[in-house]
Write a structure and sequence with these properties.
- By secondary structure, the chain is α/β, with parallel strands linked by helices.
- It is built from 10 helices and 9 strands.
- The protein folds into 2 domains: 167 residues, Rossmann fold (3-Layer(aba) Sandwich); 77 residues, SIR2/SIRT2 'Small Domain' (2-Layer Sandwich), CATH 3.30.1600.
- 35% of the residues lie in helices and 17% in strands.
- The strands form 2 sheets. It has a 6-stranded parallel beta sheet, sandwiched between helices. Strands 5-4-6 form a 3-stranded antiparallel beta sheet, with no helix packed on it.
- The radius of gyration is 19 Å and the shape is elongated.
- The relative contact order is 0.19.
């Protein structure tokens, strides 16, 4: 494993443009459960609650579950070391952007600026009538569904429900990253959700080296990944950080030898 981490660091140091592509696995260690798999939210809740047609048909019913999942519980989560390492890499000019499938805002809270929320973000609410945007911190959830102060329309979390398209800005940013990247750093995603799952495939087709950090093999590991770093995101990214910013590796030759 140590040799693989050194190989990954070598690629990261040489890369002209690196993209981080993150999923639920990076936030699990912050206390946020994944949607799928063991301990996943869909084992406890009906995923239909996040179907856009169900939301429009019964916004109060949808909002009761949305509030419990995303606003009673998720708000306690804090960035972990993996989030912080990516923020540091960005600040040091080693990370061009982060494309995240997560909606928890933890990358931004860790200090990352160049973040594109592929599936939206729980920290914003959108009026379904007049399209006014609110910060979730500005809204009371004592009564659901919450409504717009301007027009009285029902507010919807500004993340992608089943049946909704991916927003154009993060979609375009992801496609651009797949074209630009020398290194694509996958962290905590199994590659099961379309169309996000195709972004690393596009990056590979465009010549990017794929580094994957996951506790178990994913849909990417066997056929796409160049360097597979098996383990928890905090542990692996902590080791990457220690070597990447080590004084003994400031010289590129030290990293290569």
């Amino acid at each position: 494993m140590e040799q693989k981490i050194l190989e990954a660091v070598r690629l990261l140091k040489k890369s002209r443009f690196t993209t981080a592509f993150t999923g639920a696995g990076i936030s699990v260690e912050s206390g946020i459960p994944p949607f799928r798999g063991e301990g996943g939210l869909w084992n406890k809740y009906d995923p239909g609650v996040l179907d856009i047609s169900n939301f429009h048909r019964d916004p109060a019913g949808s909002w009761r579950v949305i509030k419990e999942i995303f606003y009673d519980f998720f708000t306690e989560a804090r960035p972990n070391r993996a989030h912080l390492v990516l923020a540091r890499m960005e600040q040091e000019g080693m990370l061009g952007r982060t494309i995240t499938q997560n909606i928890d805002n933890l990358h931004q809270e860790a200090g990352s600026q160049l973040v594109y929320d592929f599936h939206g973000n729980t920290k914003k609410l959108l009026c379904t009538h007049c399209r006014r945007m609110y910060k979730s911190s500005e809204i009371s959830f004592d009564h659901v569904p919450p409504t717009c102060r301007e027009c009285g329309g029902i507010l919807k979390p500004d993340f992608v429900f089943f049946g909704e398209p991916i927003p154009q800005v993060p979609l375009a940013a992801a496609y651009e990253a797949a074209a630009l990247s020398d290194v694509f750093l996958i962290i905590g995603t199994t590659g099961e959700v379309m169309p996000a799952s195709q972004i690393p495939v596009m990056a590979k087709e465009n010549g990017a080296a794929i580094i994957e950090v996951n506790p178990a093999p994913s849909n990417y590991t066997a056929g796409l990944t160049d360097i597979y770093l098996q383990g928890k995101a905090t542990e692996i990214m902590g080791k990457v950080e220690d070597i990447l910013f080590s004084a003994t590796l400031n010289n590129d030759q030290d990293c290569i030898d």
